[in-house]
Design brief:
22 strands; 11 helices; alpha/beta; 6-stranded antiparallel β-sheet; 9-stranded mixed β-sheet; single chain
Length: about 450
Amino acid sequence: GIRTVRGRADGKYDWAVNNSEIIIPKDMEKYVQSLIEFMDNSVCNFCAVETIKKELNKAGFKELSLAEPWTLEKGGKYYTTKNDSAVFAFNVGKKTPAETGFKIIAAHSDSPCFRIKPNAEIKSEKGIVKLNTEVYGGPILYTWFDRPLSVAGRVILKGEDALHPITKIIKIDRPILLIPHLAIHFNRAVNEGNHLSKQKDMLPVLGIFNDAAEKDNILLKSVASELGVEMDSILDFDLLVYDVQKANLVGMHNEFISSGRLDDLSMAHAALMAMIEGTDEQATKVMAIFDNEETGSGTKQGAVSPVLKNILKRVNAAVDGTMEDFYCAIAKSFMVSADNAHAFHPNYAEKYDPTNHPAIGAGPVIKINANCKYMSDAHSAAIFRSLCEGAGSPYQYFVNHSDVAGGSTLGNILTSQIDIEGVDVGNALWAMHSVRESASVEDHCNMIKVMKYFFSC
């Protein structure tokens, strides 16, 4: 029968069988609940890395510092982080990387949103205080109006000396912000097209403060209170605005998941599940979750940097591999670059390629571009197709409509640092870069199956 899902008071879901075909196999139900919890906890890049670290710790992975020498054991499970917003996990194989190559799955931790500027409070009439923000990435702006919002990110505190400050990750769980839309009565043409100013229209309101003294540094006071520290100990912050609405299952048979940040945290979650549960003991398996893909990846924690190449070199060296061994390992390696794809939208068929438009619920997507915006080619696409067939998953292709320019993602960016073979893939989404995106539950389960198969064969 169809597996339907009923929400519970504790935020989890009860699965029940009615009639007709089964959408989600019994052994996949845990991944759906896990994805929902992962999305609710990972409200920004810093929180996503914290969530991933907790799952890796539970699975027996050991944290390493990039600033200290590494001693690795064959069969050992390790991870390290960069900038608190990128995380790299690896399971050292029993054979050397020069013998087997590296098996790599890459995704990214960031999503379009709003970043809070320094000196953020803007005081308005009658005690109203709003926050000065800057747009991060390319969000669909109008989807952020009239929603309960909050703040999460990283706060930097005074440490023992100037060169060693303390980092705290913060997630304020209650809604403290909203961006109110202008009433239609003041803009009768709003539904005919409405240009939005990022500096004027998109500033969130924090509250009403009638006490003049209370208005000063109200954001920092709130952050300090949340962290249990003195406000004067806060040196700086990376604070982001997020939508507090939880992830939901949607549809007559609960076949869709609706959530913020599915691009690309759903792929990060799938990679995490594969990293924890993959069973190949011979090859070294790697999960690389980069930051700042939405702004071009050009940071020390982004895919343009040599961070992954340096980690792979250190793994190779730790198992007594030479530089010649490293080059052999790279030549034998394969990477699955996982970033979501554009699902065919039934209201906008003209936007899509006539023969290569992926449908929601029809399986993982192989992404192809003639101008090399993706790293996929016939050879690497054939490998991923074979992985799908081996895992028992459907697959499909995405190619841009020839009159519609597409973007790029991690795969081809990484090849500027490592000449590795790989394929760009993802699951199909509706409303990419909206405050809430929609995807198929079945697709997510199939992507996990394929990634696990890759890490197990």
